[in-house]
């Protein structure tokens, strides 16, 4: 998953499984939390500052936490804990920049991922008087 491809995918249920060959083989993955999965999502175009280009992945279970992986989906940790309600669903937009998660009490969590900042000049702007 260091680079985006259409062969990698995840499925949930009681446990998390991952394929890297379009579903020909599914391997169990270590995941965080307990309960059934409410959704798995991620940003195929979200590349962190890490030169390896790791992708962000998120999932929710039937609890009040959003879990994240930034390292090839090998280690998952809690990214956000809701003040109340349990998550039931999570989704991202097509670019993977905006993520929404919905709770059973009607609460919605929203995450707007940074896409990076690139320096274009070292010039400091001055004040112009006319």
Could you walk me through the main structural features you see in this protein, from its secondary elements to its overall organization?
With 130 residues, the chain is mainly beta. It has a single domain, classed as TolB, C-terminal domain (Neuraminidase, 6 Propeller). The chain is 0% helix and 42% strand. The chain contains no helices and ten strands. The chain has strands spanning 9-11, 16-19, 27-29, 37-47, 55-61, 65-69, 77-81, 87-92, 98-103, 108-112. The strands form three sheets. It has a four-stranded antiparallel beta sheet, with no helix packed on it. Strand 6 and strand 7 (77-81) form a beta hairpin. Mean pLDDT is 78; it is low at 44-48.
CATH superfamily: TolB, C-terminal domain
Gross morphology is globular
Number of strands: 10
Which CATH class?
Mainly Beta
How many alpha or pi helices? 0
Return Rg in Å.
18 Å
Q: Could you list the spans in which at least 5 consecutive residues all have pLDDT below 50? A: 44-48
Helix proportion? under 10%
What is the percentage of strand-forming residues? 35-45%
What string, H for helix and E for strand, traces the elements in order? EEEEEEEEEE
Level-2 CATH architecture: 6 Propeller
Secondary structure category: mainly beta
Straight-line distance between termini: 54 Å
**What is the fold named in CATH at topology level?**
Neuraminidase
Major sheet characteristics: 4 strands, antiparallel
Could you give the order of strands across the largest sheet?
4-5-6-7
| Chain-averaged pLDDT | 78
Total count of domains: 1
């Amino acid at each position: 998953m260091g680079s985006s491809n259409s062969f990698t995918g995840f499925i949930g249920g009681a446990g998390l499984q991952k394929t890297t060959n379009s579903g020909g083989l599914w391997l169990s993955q270590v995941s965080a939390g307990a309960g059934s999965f409410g959704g798995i999502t991620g940003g195929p175009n979200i590349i962190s500052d890490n030169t390896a280009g790791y992708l962000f992945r998120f999932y929710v279970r039937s609890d009040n936490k959003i879990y994240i992986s930034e390292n090839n989906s090998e280690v998952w940790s809690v990214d956000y804990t809701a003040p109340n309600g349990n998550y039931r669903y999570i989704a991202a937009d097509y670019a993977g920049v905006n993520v929404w998660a919905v709770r059973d009490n009607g609460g919605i969590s929203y995450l707007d991922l940074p896409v990076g900042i690139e320096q274009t000049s070292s010039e400091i702007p001055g004040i112009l008087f006319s």
